[in-house]
Amino acid sequence: MITESLALGKRSLTKWTRNPFAVIVTSLQALFWLALFGNSFNPANAFPSTAAGSLGPLQQAFGGASTYITFLTPGVISIVALTGMSFMGVDLVFDRINGYLDVLRAFPIPRTSIYFGGVIQNVAKGMVAAPITFLIALLVPNGLKLAQGFGALNLLGIFATIALLTTVFSTFFTGIAISVKSTDSFFAAVNFLTFPIMFTSTAFFPLSFFPAWLKPVAQANPISLASDAMRLLVVNGTFSPAEVSAFIEDWVGLLIFGLAFALLGIAMARNALRAR
Predict the structure, then answer these.
(1) Which of 150, 186, 241, 261 is the most buried (most CB within 10 A)?
(2) How far is the C-alpha of 232 from the C-alpha of 251, rounded, in Å?
(3) Could you tell me if 243 and 232 are in contact, meaning their C-beta atoms sit under 8 angstroms apart?
(4) Cβ–Cβ < 8 Å for 201, 227
């Protein structure tokens, strides 16, 4: 099954690399969130006397981040992963419409390899988008300010976290992509799911900004778990024992989501590929 999944994932990635517009769109999306949203909705704008981009008296509320874009960057990396994993599954919808999935079902390969091939290619695309977003955050005005102790292990931790998050969402949205029978249904499902996930997370603002009834939802949101884990790496550089515990808790939460979404995605894919 591994060989077949890798071969199917490679096919999709080959098509993707021949379309540079896809990478350009990802870059523009990151630029929008960081340069436009990050400066237009920057809470520091309410304190014009503070240094350019500095959060000033709000720094503690934003987890110690020196600038809003420093706080925002992990959230934007997570948002780009969410939108990428959700919409990139459209290739599988076109494969169904064009009859390619029917051809694959006739081959002597495990049908779950079709599902895992989709998961693999989406995760690979997400791992291309993450460093692009990180680089843009460093370049935009009043942008990302790395902690003094930030090093190679911090960077590795950020990309390991985003790899886990992309896997979480890819397992779920790949199952949806294989299940639906039209692009209309696919985009309706994706839009219905992505916006609530996005705006009930701590991607844009800290948990303290949420009303009490929404805080449990925001805390359990996989976007929040990944964003908070990456913020510990970006803002603090080195960890205190309490921060190590918080980082582990975020990762455990993401692993639980990953297992649950994988089981759900496999079940959806098996049901769709078994249907006549």
Answers:
(1) 186
(2) 12
(3) yes
(4) yes
Contacts of 128 (CB under 8 A, 6+ apart): 23, 26
Torsional sign, CA 122, 128, 130, 133: negative
Q: Which amino acid, 14?
A: T
Length of the chain measured in residues: 276
Give the separation between CA 255 and CA 121, rounded to whole angstroms.
20
Distance between CA 75 and CA 72 in Å, rounded? Answer: 5
Number of Cβ within 10 Å of residue 103's Cβ equals 10
Residues 6+ positions from 44 with CB-CB distance below 8 Å: 50, 53, 54, 55, 56, 58, 67, 68
Which residue's structure tokens are 């911090």?
A: 154
For residue 83, the 8-state DSSP code is H
- In whole angstroms, what is the distance from residue 25 CA to residue 29 CA? 6
CA atoms within 13 A on the CB side of 206: 18
Per DSSP, the three-state class of 19 is coil
Q: DSSP letter for 54, please.
A: B
**Residue 145 neighbours by CB under 8 Å, 6+ apart:** 65, 66, 67, 70
- Residue whose entry in the numeric block shows the structure tokens 């990635």: 13
pLDDT tens for the chain, 276 residues: list them. Answer: 677 777 777 777 777 777 777 777 777 888 888 888 888 888 877 766 565 667 777 778 888 888 888 999 999 999 998 888 888 778 888 877 887 777 777 777 777 788 888 888 888 888 888 888 899 998 888 778 888 878 888 899 999 999 999 999 999 988 888 888 888 888 888 889 999 999 999 999 999 899 999 999 999 999 999 999 999 998 887 777 878 898 999 999 999 999 999 999 989 888 887 754
